[in-house]
Specification:
The protein is an alpha/beta fold. It is 33% helix and 24% strand. It is built from twelve helices and 15 strands. The strands form three sheets. It has a seven-stranded mixed sheet with strand order 1-2-5-4-3-6-7. Strands 10-11-14-13-12-15 form a six-stranded antiparallel β-barrel. The N terminus is likely disordered.
Length: 334
């Protein structure tokens, strides 16, 4: 299947055979999951785009619809960015095309030599492959720069490594970023991402309680992306290409929703019952079915239980006023 990317021009090919029929020739390609599309990933992806521009060749990212660790270890990591979110970020970096592979038992058992030949030579007709400094591929992780160059000599393409990117004396990694987000250390995560921590979610139907309170909210399905801890956050939201500001609540709404068996300590792991709701400032309109990218700018407060709806609304109005002052650059002392 071939479908348009999430912006105007990036093509997305699903499967090797589809890419082989897609007419791509003399490509410059790179390979990886690129979960988070952090500054290390962006370095590799940007190098791929620049090499493509220099050679007047299509730049292609080869990625996976399912995380390889889920097949290899049986326990996939919680994603920083879903496939849909990654495709948006790839397009924003200027990639011409993405080839999405389903990492299954068959692909896991494919030798590195066969993978390189089938993907980079047969499907993409590559002239150059750009690998991250620690990228490995093929059965047993045997595929590296040296092996890729050996295959390339026989099949007519070259390969280069991109340098690692270091932040705080350590190499940037998706694992480090994931841990920082879960701890609420969004400043550290943002430095490694090179952008604010963000989630992509589809607006789904809720119980419309916020609308009855005069605080309409968009309820998000996050496609299994990792999210910050519970609380109220000041956010920037991309809606139909327009940046808007708002408040985002992550949690289980203790003012209205009773915990299991009435025991506040009986709530399960946070992701099981947490809702993600966004209230946009100075906005009215229908958001159902839209994909929203929510970028976390600042933490306003913890989630709290209020004695009733009037107290909740009063605090929400105070939260909104605080965030407006924050956006205006006011100092809060300390």
């Amino acid at each position: 299947m071939v479908r348009d990317g999430h912006a105007d021009h990036m093509k997305v090919f699903e499967g090797i055979e589809t890419a082989a029929r897609g007419g791509l020739r003399k490509c410059v390609a790179t390979l990886g999951v690129f979960d988070g599309v952090h500054i290390g990933h962006r370095h590799v992806l940007t190098e791929t785009v620049l090499y493509g521009q220099e050679r007047r060749a299509p730049s292609v990212v080869v990625t996976f619809g399912t995380h390889p660790k889920g097949v290899i270890s049986g326990t996939p990591p919680q994603l920083i960015t879903s496939l849909r979110h990654r495709l948006r970020l790839f397009e924003a970096l200027g990639l011409d095309a993405a080839l999405v592979l389903d990492f299954d038992a068959t692909l896991r058992g494919t030798s590195a030599e066969d993978f390189a030949a089938r993907v980079f030579a047969d499907a993409l007709d590559c002239q150059l492959v750009v690998l991250g400094c620690d990228t490995r591929f093929g059965r047993g992780g045997r595929g590296d720069l040296s092996l890729l160059r050996d295959v390339g000599k026989r099949r007519g393409f070259d390969a280069v490594n991109a340098d690692a990117v270091v932040v705080g004396g350590q190499k940037v990694s998706s694992t480090r970023i994931r841990e920082s987000i879960l701890k609420g250390e969004l400043g550290d995560a943002a430095r490694m991402l090179g952008r604010p921590v963000a989630v992509l979610g589809t607006v789904v139907s809720g119980d419309r309680r916020g609308r009855t309170l005069g605080w309409p909210t968009a309820n998000l399905d996050l496609h299994h992306e990792v999210r910050p801890p519970r609380g109220v956050w000041g956010v920037e939201v991309l809606v139909d290409g327009i940046r808007r500001h708002g408040l985002c609540n992550i949690g289980f709404r203790p003012t209205f929703d009773a915990p299991p068996q009435g025991d506040p300590d009986a709530w399960p792991a946070r992701d099981a019952f947490d809702r993600i709701e966004v209230h946009l400032l100075d906005f009215s309109g229908d958001l159902y079915g839209k994909d929203l990218e929510v970028r976390f700018l600042c933490r306003i407060r913890d989630e709290m239980k209020f004695p009733g709806k009037d107290a909740l609304v009063a605090r929400l109005e105070a939260d909104r006023a605080w965030f407006r002052r924050w956006l205006a650059g006011e100092s809060f002392g300390g």
